[in-house]
Automatic annotation (TrEMBL):
Belongs to the carotenoid oxygenase family. It comes from the Bacteria. Keywords: Iron, Metal-binding, Oxidoreductase. It is an enzyme of class 1 (oxidoreductase). Its cofactor is Fe(2+). PANTHER family: BETA-CAROTENE DIOXYGENASE, CAROTENOID ISOMEROOXYGENASE. One of its GO terms (biological process) is carotene catabolic process. This is 8'-apo-beta-carotenal 15,15'-oxygenase. The keyword Iron applies. Binds 1 Fe(2+) ion per subunit.
Amino acid sequence: MQQIQPCLFKAYASQYEELILKELHIHGEVPTWLSGSFISIGPSQFEVGSTNFNHWFDGFAMLKKFTFKSGCIHFQNQFLQSQEYIESNRRGKLNANEFGTYASKSKLGRVLFSLKELVGSKLHDNCVVNTTRIDDSYIAMTESKNVVSFNIKNLSTTKNFNFNDKITEHLTTAHPHFDPTTGELINIAIEVGKANKYHIYKIDPLSKTRKIIQTYLSHNLFYIHSFSITRNYIILFKSPLVINKFKLLFGLPFNNTLAYKENLPSVFVIVDRRNGKLHEIEAEPFVCIHSINAYEHKNEIILDLICQQAGNPYDKLYLSNLCSSKPTLPTGAIKRYVVDTQARNCNQEILTSNNQEFPRINYKRCNGNNYQFIYTNSIDGPNNQFFNTIQKMNTQTGSIQHWRKKDNYVGEALFVSKPHCQSEDDGILLSIAFDINTQLSTLIIIDALSMQLLAEAYLPIHLPFGLHGNFYNDTIV
């Protein structure tokens, strides 16, 4: 077990308990219009046998569901029954390399595992990053080609999900987009080879078949965690953070394959959704893990991103750093790029330079369109060991509002819109918080208009810091 600082003892400690709680104790009032389920995913087991995991992203995935009905909150959490989770716990040792931890100490074992994985006979399916819906399936995702589907009613794992096509895929992003008009899902399937192929595809609603919009060829296997869409364009961010395909082949943990190449520029790869035409626009080097939004204005594309400092930001997410007395988190500035699609150039400005990550917007209303508000996690004040503030930024005026609570650290703040709302920010924010005094977790409900606390729902257990979540308003328990 890592030597965790006392105030964060349980925030990075395994949580093995799986609960079904009919009704959580609530302080405050939950809006009665809030109906559906907030499902979040993240790591929850950080050791197996004698192996302690090295990286935050190594932990085995746990699904957490908060279901809202008539002002009450039901809670359930359950481990995702991935092949990695099942086999590792059955054997009492790590079955596959995780993001920053070796499964095999021998070079031969690493290579054999990697080869099996590339040809599909060995699964890397610890889908710890995000969840989404494709057709009638709810799936957990990571950045490998493998996804795991689950039953949204009871969180039981159902099976490994398969697409109905023959696109070759080794890597992907766990941040697909949905077109607000057509309902199409858009994502990227990465085929590793001599010429690396980034297959940009769409899936029609009620389908599991991917249709390629365009394939981008790249000599460098550049790392991409997210991307942006507008009504007419798909924008990829080709940064100097690249994957060494030989290290990937030789079985190193994924983070060990990443390297920042100082001699490379960043490039916006822009694909026209109407005809598949592709062009590149070069920019000064930057690393973007999470995009925020993009929209069109005349012949320009306005891109809002969280940009990190040069280097590999994931190097700061090893538990040895996170559990230290003065951890350094990979936060960034909110930057706006104005890309001229005719002149083929771009300009940038910093919207806010303080420590930001995990951006969210009113996605259903604003994704791909002109918008006003960004919600992020931020670090406010000295000596904070994780995100302690939820920030709301007005992109039009530059004004900033905050919510924070003493001795609480917060997770990603998910925006849920009020039915028939008039304004973009008429809704609530959902965030899982960790109280360093009780060493327990709570669900925070914030009024997105005023940034005031509406309600807290108390859990009898701690939930380790998680990653991403989504709200599914067709799910009632």
